[in-house]
Amino acid sequence: MKPQSLQRKLTAILSADVKGYSRLMGEDEEATIRTLTAHRKVMATLIQKHRGRVVDAPGDNVLAEFGSVVDAVECAVEIQRELATRNTELPGEWSFASVSTSGM
Question: Maximum Cα–Cα distance for the chain, whole Å?
Fold first, then answer.
């Protein structure tokens, strides 16, 4: 019997979550969910634009994979810029999404 060969896949992972999510939920749950939903749509669009795919989105996190580290980093930078602009429209201490990438 021939042993099965192990298939490997190199992937870059992008993980984004909401800074202070528990605090924001405590302050205004409806506004937090509404803002999170809007920001997730933006992130999903940018992830697709950079040839990635959303793998999971538990709680306040978005997890995406990319075939290229360059695509993942460029996407993370664009997400940070876009959400920084959108965050200026939010009240007080609100700040959504902290994004990081890692090669796997």
Answer: 66
Task: Decide the pairing of beta strands 12-17 and 98-103.
Answer: antiparallel
37's tokens: 């939903």
Query: Which residue type does 58 have?
Result: P
C-alpha–C-alpha distance, residues 42 and 36, integer Å: 10
69 Cβ contact partners less than 8 Å away, ≥ 6 residues apart? 12, 101, 103
**What is the spatial distance between Cα 14 and Cα 24, in angstroms, rounded to a whole number?**
23
Q: pLDDT tens for residues 65-92? A: 999 999 999 999 999 999 888 888 877 6
Place of tokens 């939010």: 90
Q: Which two tokens stand for residue 7?
A: 């298939």
